[in-house]
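Consider the following assembly input.
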Amino acid sequence: MSSASSKAAVSDQLTKDSASRANRIMIIIWSWQYGGMPSQMDEWSVEGNSGDKVVRMDLKMSSSAKETLREKLQEYAQQGEVFLFLHRRHGYDQKTLKEILQMARSVLPQGHLIKSFLFGEGNDKIYIVNQTKGLLGTRGTFSAKLQAVGIRQATYVNAIADKDKKVIKRKHFDFVWHQYSHNFKAKIFELKEDLFRSLSPFLFITEIQAGAVYNYIKQEENKLLMLRLLSFIGKIRKGSNLETQLKEFEQQHKRSYFFDDCHLNLKMTYGEQEAQLYDSLVDTISKKLLAYEPNLNFTNIRDQFDELLEAMPGSTYN
Amino acid sequence: MANKNYNILIVDDDAEFHQQIRYAFRRNYVFEGAINQEHLEKKLKERSDFDLILLDLMLDDSNEMVGLDMIPDLASRFPEIPIIVVTADKKIDTVVQAMKQGARDFLTKADYDFDFWNKKFQEVLQSQSLREENKALRQEVQKHRDQKQKEFTFIGESQKILEIKRILRLVSEEPDITVLITGETGVGKEVAARFLHSHGARKDKPFQAVNLSAIQKTLLESTLFGHKKGAFTGATRDMEGYFKQANGGILMLDEIGDIDANIQIKLLRFLETKMIRPVGADKDIQLDVQIVAATHRDLKDEVQKGHFRADLYQRLKAMVVKIPALRERRADIPLILQHYYPGEDVNEIISPMAMDKLKNYHWPGNIRELKNAISYMQLRKKIFDRKQIDLDCLPVEIQEFNELVDTFYTNGSSAPDQEMAPTSPESPPPPSNLTIEEEHALIDLRKIEQSLFRKNKVKKDVAVELGLENTDNLRYKIKKYFDKHPHLFKDFPLICESYKRIVKLEE
Amino acid sequence: MKQVSYLSTDQITPKAVQNWFEQQGYQFVPLTDASPQPSEAFQKIEILILFVPFFHNNVYISNENVWKSFFQEHYPDVLLLTAGYIKQAHTNYLDLLQLPEDLPAFLQNAKSINQFDRFPFSGGLDVEKKLHKFYKGHGDESLTYELGKIARIITMAVDELKQAVPFPEIYKDLLIPNRIIEKWKVLTNRWQNYLPFFKGLPFDTTLQEVHDGFSSIAPFFEGGCEDEHLLIDLNCKEKLHEIKQKLEIIGRQYG
C-alpha cells in the first residue's frame, strides 16, 4: 500500500479500468482566485494516468462566460463524461443552469450529455469532509482544515497528489464523482422518507378532510418540509425570501435541500422517462398534497416516489 | 533467544512494516526485504539460503491475496525455507488456505507481540532444523543401509551357492517357516538370512540379527523378550526386546547353539504359540516374527550331549540350509574380491601370483577372514608403495601357506564349480602340531595383537581395522578363543592387557 | 397487557402509531438501552419493532440486519419486526401506509428470528457495507488496519523502553520513521467519519467506550509523541490493546 510498486500496480489497474469506461471530467467553476490559485483555467489529471481530469475555471456568469462554457463543454464532451459544477455565488442559478444545459444539448452530438450541479455554502458533497473525501475546501483551494470532535488538533486535508504536476488524489476524485452520480437519487429518497414521517399523524385518519394535510404542512414547525416540496416542484424563485430561508436551513442542518438542479438534470440528462415520472410526481404534490383536494392517497404518492427512484440508475447511497 | 545466524526474508509491500520488524528484532535476526513478487524472485536468485520467509498475503492495493498463490510455488522450489504467512487480521479461512498451500504458520499483524512472534519464529526455525537433521539422518540411515546391503550381498556363482540361493528364494515364499542356517564361522550365515529377508514377503518389515553368544547370559532374556520397568534392578523403564522390534519381519538368532535351557524353553514356546512375555510383565504379547536360527555348532551333537533341547531342535531343523566354507567354493573368491573393489578390475589390482595364493588358501575364517585380509593387503600395498597387491602384501599366513596343500586343492579341479571341497574331516592338515581350531585362533589372535599395537590399543579402531562391526564382536571373538584355547594367549600381551576381565591367565 | 418495544430516531411516527397499538391491547414502549451485552432491558422484550431506515447524521441508515444478527445471537426468542414507509412485503414488516387490520393475526403470522434469513433492504445507507469497510483487513478505508499499525508501533516502543533503550532513540528510530503522528490523525479522522454511521447499533455503548479510549490517549499523540511519560502514564499500549479487543469482539459478529 505504501510502496511505490504497489502504487504502480494500482495505476495499472486503473489504466485497465479506464480503458473499459469513458474518461470522467469534472469542470468546476468556483472562486479559485479567492484562495490564492490562479484565475486562468487549467487542467488537473488524476492519480493513475487515466484520462480522468478536473478542469478549474474561475468564471463569473455573463453572456461571454456562457460562450466560453459552450466551447469548453463541446471540447470536453468529446473526451468523456462531463460533470459541470456551478458555484451559486458566481451568479449561477436554475435559470442559467437551464440555459447551459439547453445550450449543451444543442451543441453536443446525440448521446453526449452532461450533468450539471449547482453548489455553494459549503454543504455540498464536493467539499472536503475527511481524509479521502471531497475536492474543495471552503477557501478556494483543493485543501481544507478539518477539526474533529473530541480531538484538539486540526487536520489539514489536501486533495492534491502532486502540486507541480497538477495531479489530484484518486480517492478524492472518485468520491466526488460517485456522490454526484447518486446525488439526485439520495435527495429524492430523503424527501420521501421525511415527508411520510412528517405526515404520520394522518396515518390512522380514514377520511382526511380536504386541505387538512396542506394546512398541516403550512404550519411553522413544518416549514422546512414545505420549502423542500416547493423546491421540488420548482416554485422557489431566485432571490426570493423562500430561497433565503431554505439556504438558511441548509446551512443550519448541513444538508442539501434545493432541487433546482435536480429536475433539469433529470429532464436533460437522465432521460425522458425519468423526467416524465418527476413531472408526474410534481403534479401530484402540487395538485393533491399542497392543495385542498379531498381523498388524498398516501400510498399513491409513495408509489410515484418509488417509481421515480427505481427508474433512476444506481444506488441511493454509496 | 538471540540468534543472529538466522536470515529472515520479509515480503511485504508496506515498507514501514519492514522497518518495524527489523527494528523490533534487530538483536535477534538478520533481515532482508522484498516488496513484491518480482523483488522476491530477485532476492531468491541472489541467495536461496534464507532460514525463513515472512510473507504478507496482500502485496498490492488490489485487495487480492496474491501472496496466497505464491506459497505453493515457493514451497516446492525452496522446500528448505519455511514460510510464515502474515495477515492483516485473523481470518480463519485465509489461514487455513495458506497452511494448505504450504505455509508453516501464520501471524496476525494486528496482534503484534514480540514474545509471541519470536516464539513462532523460533518454533518454525527449529522445526526446520529438525527437518533438515531428520533428512540428513534419513540420508545417513539410507547410506548405512546401502553400505549394509553391500556388505551383505550374497556373492557367489558357484554351483553350491546358486543352489542355496534357489532354496532360499523358495523358502522366502513361506514367511512362517523357521529356518536353520548352519556353516562354519564367517561363511556368511547372516548374509544368507538377509538374502532370505530381501526376497520374501517380509522384505519391507524389520530384519533384526542378534548374536546370542555375545550377550551376557543374565541379560539375554530381557534383551530378547524385553522387560517392564522395575522388573529387576536397573530396569528403570520399559524396554522392547529383539522379538518385539522384529515384529512383522525376521529375527535372526545367531549362535543359537550357545543359549541356555531357560532361553531354549522360551524360544520353543514362541515357536509354538507366537507369544512372548517380557520380563516382569503379567501378560503375553502376540507377535508375528519369522525365526531364522544360525549356528556353527552341530546341534544334533549338542542334543546328544544334553546341551540342547531335542524338541527345540526338532522345530528348528524343519528347514536347514548349510552354507559351504569358502574353501569349498574357491571359484567365488575372485568374485568376492571384486565386490570389495567396486569400479576396478581386481585382476589389475592383485598380481596373478598373489591371486593364486588367495585362491589356494584354505580360509579357516572364511569370508570374514577374506574381508580382513583385503584390509590388510590394502594397507600393506600402501606401506610398500606397490602398484599392485603382490605376494609381499599378503598376510603372512597366506604367504606361508603350504604349497602342497595348495596343490592338493587346486589339482584336478580346473572347473571352479567342481571344487566341492570337503568339510573339516577333509580339511588340509595343519602346518604344526596344533589343531586346526588352534591354528585359526592363532591367526586371528596375531592379527588382533598387531592391530592393537598399530592402533595404540584403541579397541574401536582395532575392530574397524579388522572389519568387525563393533568392539562387542571383538570382545566376543577374544572371549570365544580364551574359553577354548586359554593356553594360546600367553604370546599376546597386548590382548591380555586390553581384555583383562576376559583373559585371566594362571600365574 | 402485552408489550411491544420499539427503536426509532423519529419521534413523530412512533407517537402516531402508539394509539393504534394501544387500541389493540398492546403497550407500546421505546427501548432506550442498547448494549452488546445481555441486559435486563433486553431480556424483558417479547416483541421489538425497528423503524427503518434509521435517520442519523443527515443520512438514512439501513441497520435492520445488524440488529437481527444481534438478537439472533443473544435473544433469539424476541419477535423482531421492522416498520417503515417503504413498499415491501415481508411477514415481519409493518407497512405504515398499509397497516394490517388485525394486528394479533399479523403478529401471529410473523416468523421467529431463526425462521428467516434477512430483512428486506430498507433503502438507506447500508451499514453492513460500512462495517465491512471498517474492518476490512487491508485498505485505505479500514479503521482496524490503521489501528493495528499504531498499536504495533506503540507496543514496540514500550518494549524498547523496557529494554532500557532511551526514549529519544525510540522516538528517532521508530516513531518518526513510521510517521506515527500522521497515522494517529488518519485513525482519528476515520473514526470520526465512521462513528456517526454506527449510531443506533447494538454496540453503541462499546463504541462510546472506544471513543473514550481514543480521547484518553490523544494527549500523547497530540503532543507530537515526544513525551515518554505520557506514553507510559496514559497506558497507551494497554489502551490501544483494549480498544482493539473491544472492536474485535464487535467485528467477529458484524465485521
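The interface with chain B takes residues 135-139, 142, 144-145, 147-149, 151-153, 155-156, 159-160, 173-174, 177-179, 244 of chain C (CB under 8 Å). Ask yourself how this observation constrains the way the partners meet.
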